[in-house]
Amino acid sequence: MTIAAKRGSFVSENLTEGSSDAAETAVRHVLRDILGLSEAQVAGFDRDTELFGALPELDSMAVAGLLTEMEDRLGILIEDDEVDGALFENFGNLVDFAKAKLAA
Amino acid sequence: MSDSQRSVSYRFDGRAELCLRFGPVDAPAVLFVLPLFDEANRLRHLVVEAARMLARHGIASLIPDLPGGNESLAPPDSASISLWQAALITCAQQLGPVSHIASMRGGCLIDDALGDVPRWRLAPVKGAQLLRAMLRTKIAADRETGVTSTTDALMETAHSRGIELAGNRLSATMVRELNNAEPAAQAGVRLVRFADDPLDADGRIVGAPMWLRAEPGHDPQMARAMADDIAAWSRGVQIQP
Q1: Which site from A13, A79, A100, B220 is most exposed, i.e. has the minimal number of CB atoms within 10 Å?
Q2: ipTM of this predicted complex?
């Protein structure tokens, strides 16, 4: 994992459509399940939708659960040092991170 | 048919451990094994409602406290996977007969305590995954107080002298057993998952993983779906006590 990936600011041109769709769907569903949001609410998330700080349900405990669920559903392993504030800044960063982990 | 709920108890390790009993008094019971640790608290309401609905199907059920959890007076750091399995055996001996087991999440790690009793499992999870989520909350909490901790360092401490994670005092024995625990793969298991879960399953129910939520909730539709599925399954493979 590169520094760029950690910051969630990279692009994901080298990914196949299939895996990137799977990543985005999985992230949407994990947020829905962890935060108790409706399907319609998470369907309305776009890349700029703010997460940490904007969603009161997303506290540091919820973040711990969210990371573990993402690992489980995507079959990836997330290291301690890959997790920082930028990762949860917005929906786009989190999806990019998941896509990069899947491609790695 | 009765859906009456009664608080009973079983004696384990010199203490009375609470157990809720539902349904017909003299019938063999479905033993509910709740998820482990905090996930149990977020699912208790749902499982109690499912047990009530099961009683309306004419099926008795038990929801025991595990030593160190819920109302139990046993020291939390005395708990371990093997101790909980022993507690389930004792509970079944004293309050059974138990004809079937219905377990969820981490409960599936201890549901083989009664041997080959048929089991209904909802979204089983590996022990290492539960441990990892708890370690993450510890790392996050440490970070908020300016301490940088790592999974590796915390696990080293945990293996040598136990650790408190997410409000749970885990002994070194618990850490070792939990880290190695996986749902026992045996015959006689009905594996149930949610409709939108891509993983393989024997059956699908409507609902959401309420054990992930920050606050305990309730979903009557999911409770009914669980009860209906357990009722149909248990009638299909009814085992004489």
Answers
A1: A13
A2: 0.73
